[in-house]
Specification:
alpha/beta; 6 strands; about 45% helix
Protein backbone atom coordinates (compact mmCIF):
# COMPACT_ATOMS: atom_id res chain seq x y z
CA UNK A 1 0.00 0.00 0.00
CA UNK A 2 2.77 2.46 0.92
CA UNK A 3 4.70 1.76 -2.29
CA UNK A 4 1.57 2.28 -4.39
CA UNK A 5 0.85 5.54 -2.59
CA UNK A 6 4.36 6.88 -3.19
CA UNK A 7 4.22 5.87 -6.85
CA UNK A 8 0.87 7.60 -7.25
CA UNK A 9 2.12 10.79 -5.62
CA UNK A 10 5.21 10.77 -7.82
CA UNK A 11 3.12 10.40 -10.95
CA UNK A 12 0.74 13.17 -9.91
CA UNK A 13 3.68 15.45 -9.16
CA UNK A 14 5.15 14.85 -12.61
CA UNK A 15 1.76 15.73 -14.10
CA UNK A 16 1.76 19.05 -12.28
CA UNK A 17 -0.52 18.27 -9.34
CA UNK A 18 1.37 19.80 -6.44
CA UNK A 19 -1.48 19.85 -3.93
CA UNK A 20 -4.11 17.23 -3.08
CA UNK A 21 -7.07 17.78 -0.79
CA UNK A 22 -8.93 14.95 0.82
CA UNK A 23 -12.61 15.42 1.71
CA UNK A 24 -13.42 11.92 2.97
CA UNK A 25 -13.10 10.54 6.48
CA UNK A 26 -10.03 11.13 8.60
CA UNK A 27 -8.84 7.55 8.32
CA UNK A 28 -7.05 8.48 5.08
CA UNK A 29 -5.49 11.70 6.32
CA UNK A 30 -2.00 10.24 5.75
CA UNK A 31 -2.46 10.79 2.02
CA UNK A 32 -2.87 14.52 2.52
CA UNK A 33 -0.02 14.73 5.03
CA UNK A 34 2.37 12.89 2.71
CA UNK A 35 1.48 15.15 -0.18
CA UNK A 36 1.86 18.33 1.89
CA UNK A 37 5.31 17.18 2.97
CA UNK A 38 6.28 16.51 -0.65
CA UNK A 39 4.93 19.90 -1.74
CA UNK A 40 6.88 21.67 1.00
CA UNK A 41 10.15 20.03 -0.04
CA UNK A 42 9.51 20.88 -3.67
CA UNK A 43 8.95 24.58 -2.87
CA UNK A 44 12.33 24.84 -1.14
CA UNK A 45 14.38 23.00 -3.76
CA UNK A 46 16.93 25.19 -5.60
CA UNK A 47 15.42 24.75 -9.06
CA UNK A 48 12.13 26.27 -7.86
CA UNK A 49 13.79 29.32 -6.35
CA UNK A 50 14.61 32.55 -8.19
CA UNK A 51 18.14 32.66 -9.63
CA UNK A 52 19.41 34.95 -6.88
CA UNK A 53 18.04 32.58 -4.25
CA UNK A 54 19.60 29.33 -5.46
CA UNK A 55 21.47 26.87 -3.31
CA UNK A 56 24.85 28.65 -3.35
CA UNK A 57 23.31 31.94 -2.23
CA UNK A 58 21.22 30.19 0.42
CA UNK A 59 24.29 28.44 1.81
CA UNK A 60 26.16 31.73 2.02
CA UNK A 61 23.18 33.36 3.74
CA UNK A 62 23.06 30.55 6.27
CA UNK A 63 26.79 30.89 6.93
CA UNK A 64 26.35 34.61 7.54
CA UNK A 65 23.25 34.30 9.71
CA UNK A 66 24.88 31.61 11.83
CA UNK A 67 27.93 33.78 12.52
CA UNK A 68 26.75 37.37 12.16
CA UNK A 69 27.20 37.93 15.91
CA UNK A 70 30.54 36.12 16.09
CA UNK A 71 32.70 37.08 19.08
CA UNK A 72 35.36 34.39 18.84
CA UNK A 73 38.11 37.02 18.89
CA UNK A 74 38.48 40.55 20.25
CA UNK A 75 37.80 42.26 16.90
CA UNK A 76 34.10 42.04 17.69
CA UNK A 77 34.58 44.62 20.46
CA UNK A 78 35.31 47.50 18.11
CA UNK A 79 33.51 46.61 14.88
CA UNK A 80 30.30 48.20 13.65
CA UNK A 81 29.27 45.05 11.82
CA UNK A 82 30.65 41.94 10.17
CA UNK A 83 31.63 42.56 6.55
CA UNK A 84 30.85 39.47 4.49
CA UNK A 85 31.19 39.26 0.69
CA UNK A 86 30.18 41.17 -2.43
CA UNK A 87 29.78 40.21 -6.08
CA UNK A 88 28.91 36.98 -7.86
CA UNK A 89 28.81 33.76 -5.80
CA UNK A 90 29.00 31.81 -9.06
CA UNK A 91 32.24 33.42 -10.19
CA UNK A 92 35.29 31.36 -11.08
CA UNK A 93 37.49 33.68 -9.05
CA UNK A 94 37.50 34.74 -5.40
CA UNK A 95 39.40 37.93 -4.53
CA UNK A 96 40.61 37.95 -0.92
CA UNK A 97 41.93 41.00 0.89
CA UNK A 98 43.18 41.52 4.42
CA UNK A 99 40.32 43.03 6.45
CA UNK A 100 37.65 45.73 6.23
CA UNK A 101 38.62 49.38 6.54
CA UNK A 102 36.63 52.26 7.98
CA UNK A 103 34.26 52.64 5.04
CA UNK A 104 33.69 48.90 4.74
CA UNK A 105 32.90 48.73 8.45
CA UNK A 106 30.24 51.43 7.95
CA UNK A 107 28.64 50.01 4.81
CA UNK A 108 28.97 46.31 5.54
CA UNK A 109 30.55 45.55 2.14
CA UNK A 110 34.18 44.75 1.27
CA UNK A 111 36.32 47.04 -0.88
CA UNK A 112 34.05 50.07 -1.04
CA UNK A 113 36.58 52.62 0.23
CA UNK A 114 39.38 54.28 -1.75
CA UNK A 115 41.20 51.00 -2.37
CA UNK A 116 38.00 49.35 -3.54
CA UNK A 117 37.16 52.22 -5.86
CA UNK A 118 40.63 52.02 -7.36
CA UNK A 119 40.27 48.27 -7.84
CA UNK A 120 36.97 48.85 -9.62
CA UNK A 121 38.65 51.27 -12.05
CA UNK A 122 41.43 48.82 -12.87
CA UNK A 123 38.96 45.97 -13.39
CA UNK A 124 36.85 48.16 -15.64
CA UNK A 125 39.94 49.19 -17.61
CA UNK A 126 40.80 45.59 -18.45
CA UNK A 127 37.18 44.70 -19.26
CA UNK A 128 36.26 42.96 -16.03
CA UNK A 129 33.08 43.92 -14.20
CA UNK A 130 33.28 44.04 -10.40
CA UNK A 131 29.86 42.33 -10.34
CA UNK A 132 31.37 39.27 -12.05
CA UNK A 133 33.83 38.46 -9.28
CA UNK A 134 33.40 37.27 -5.70
CA UNK A 135 35.28 39.51 -3.29
CA UNK A 136 35.85 39.19 0.44
CA UNK A 137 38.51 39.45 3.16
CA UNK A 138 40.36 37.05 5.42
CA UNK A 139 39.01 38.87 8.48
CA UNK A 140 35.40 40.03 8.47
CA UNK A 141 35.81 42.64 11.23
CA UNK A 142 37.81 45.85 11.05
CA UNK A 143 40.96 45.79 13.20
CA UNK A 144 41.38 48.92 15.39
CA UNK A 145 43.20 51.64 13.50
CA UNK A 146 43.31 49.43 10.40
CA UNK A 147 46.25 47.51 11.85
CA UNK A 148 47.24 44.15 10.39
CA UNK A 149 45.11 41.32 11.81
CA UNK A 150 46.84 39.17 14.40
CA UNK A 151 47.55 35.50 13.49
CA UNK A 152 44.87 34.29 15.93
CA UNK A 153 42.31 36.67 14.45
CA UNK A 154 43.12 35.54 10.93
CA UNK A 155 43.01 31.86 11.79
CA UNK A 156 39.70 32.21 13.60
CA UNK A 157 38.02 33.99 10.72
CA UNK A 158 39.59 31.62 8.22
CA UNK A 159 38.02 28.65 10.00
CA UNK A 160 34.66 30.26 10.68
CA UNK A 161 34.06 32.07 7.40
CA UNK A 162 36.59 31.95 4.57
CA UNK A 163 37.15 28.20 4.30
CA UNK A 164 33.40 27.68 4.23
CA UNK A 165 32.92 30.42 1.64
CA UNK A 166 35.38 28.73 -0.69
CA UNK A 167 33.76 25.34 -0.19
CA UNK A 168 30.42 26.85 -1.16
CA UNK A 169 31.56 29.02 -4.09
CA UNK A 170 34.02 26.46 -5.51
CA UNK A 171 36.18 28.91 -7.52
CA UNK A 172 38.84 27.97 -10.05
CA UNK A 173 41.34 30.39 -8.54
CA UNK A 174 41.78 32.57 -5.45
CA UNK A 175 43.42 35.96 -5.95
CA UNK A 176 45.24 37.09 -2.82
CA UNK A 177 45.34 40.87 -2.69
CA UNK A 178 48.45 41.60 -0.67
CA UNK A 179 50.84 39.65 1.52
CA UNK A 180 48.48 39.22 4.47
CA UNK A 181 45.87 37.36 2.43
CA UNK A 182 48.59 35.22 0.85
CA UNK A 183 50.03 34.34 4.26
CA UNK A 184 46.61 33.14 5.42
CA UNK A 185 46.62 30.48 2.69
CA UNK A 186 50.31 29.66 2.44
CA UNK A 187 50.93 29.62 6.17
CA UNK A 188 54.24 31.47 5.91
CA UNK A 189 55.67 34.96 5.46
CA UNK A 190 55.24 36.30 1.95
CA UNK A 191 57.32 38.88 0.06
CA UNK A 192 54.64 40.09 -2.27
CA UNK A 193 57.06 42.09 -4.44
CA UNK A 194 58.90 38.85 -5.26
CA UNK A 195 55.94 36.45 -5.45
CA UNK A 196 53.27 38.53 -7.19
CA UNK A 197 52.05 37.80 -10.69
CA UNK A 198 52.31 34.02 -10.32
CA UNK A 199 50.14 31.00 -9.59
CA UNK A 200 50.87 28.76 -6.62
CA UNK A 201 49.70 25.46 -5.17
CA UNK A 202 47.04 26.09 -2.55
CA UNK A 203 47.80 24.14 0.67
CA UNK A 204 44.25 24.60 1.97
CA UNK A 205 42.45 23.79 -1.30
CA UNK A 206 44.73 21.79 -3.63
CA UNK A 207 42.22 21.93 -6.49
CA UNK A 208 42.04 25.73 -6.39
CA UNK A 209 44.99 27.75 -7.69
CA UNK A 210 46.39 30.70 -5.75
CA UNK A 211 47.34 33.89 -7.57
CA UNK A 212 49.23 36.63 -5.76
CA UNK A 213 49.26 40.33 -6.47
CA UNK A 214 49.40 43.66 -4.65
CA UNK A 215 46.65 45.03 -2.47
CA UNK A 216 45.09 48.07 -4.21
CA UNK A 217 45.76 50.15 -1.08
CA UNK A 218 49.48 49.50 -1.62
CA UNK A 219 49.20 50.75 -5.20
CA UNK A 220 47.58 53.99 -4.02
CA UNK A 221 50.69 54.57 -1.92
CA UNK A 222 53.07 53.38 -4.66
CA UNK A 223 51.61 54.41 -8.00
CA UNK A 224 54.80 53.36 -9.80
CA UNK A 225 53.45 49.80 -9.45
CA UNK A 226 50.07 50.62 -11.04
CA UNK A 227 50.99 49.15 -14.42
CA UNK A 228 52.33 46.00 -12.80
CA UNK A 229 49.11 45.58 -10.85
CA UNK A 230 47.08 46.02 -14.02
CA UNK A 231 49.18 43.42 -15.86
CA UNK A 232 48.76 40.97 -12.99
CA UNK A 233 44.99 41.26 -13.20
CA UNK A 234 45.12 40.73 -16.96
CA UNK A 235 46.97 37.45 -16.41
CA UNK A 236 44.38 36.42 -13.83
CA UNK A 237 41.46 37.37 -16.08
CA UNK A 238 42.86 35.31 -18.95
CA UNK A 239 43.23 32.30 -16.65
CA UNK A 240 39.65 32.59 -15.38
CA UNK A 241 38.26 32.93 -18.91
CA UNK A 242 40.12 29.84 -20.12
CA UNK A 243 39.09 27.83 -17.08
CA UNK A 244 35.46 28.72 -17.75
CA UNK A 245 35.49 27.51 -21.36
Amino acid sequence: MEKKLKATLKLLGELGFNELYYFGNTDNRDLQMENNKKHSIQKESPQNLPKEENLVVLQLKRLYEKNRDCCRCDLCKSRTQIVFYDGDPHSGVVFVGEAPGEEEDKQGKPFVGRAGQYLNKVLEKIGWNRKDIYITNVCKCRPPGNRKPLPKEMQTCLNVFLKNEIKIVKPKVICCLGATAAEAFLGKAVRITKMRGKFYVNPLFPNVKLFLTYHPAYILRNMREAKTFEEDLKILKEFVEKASE
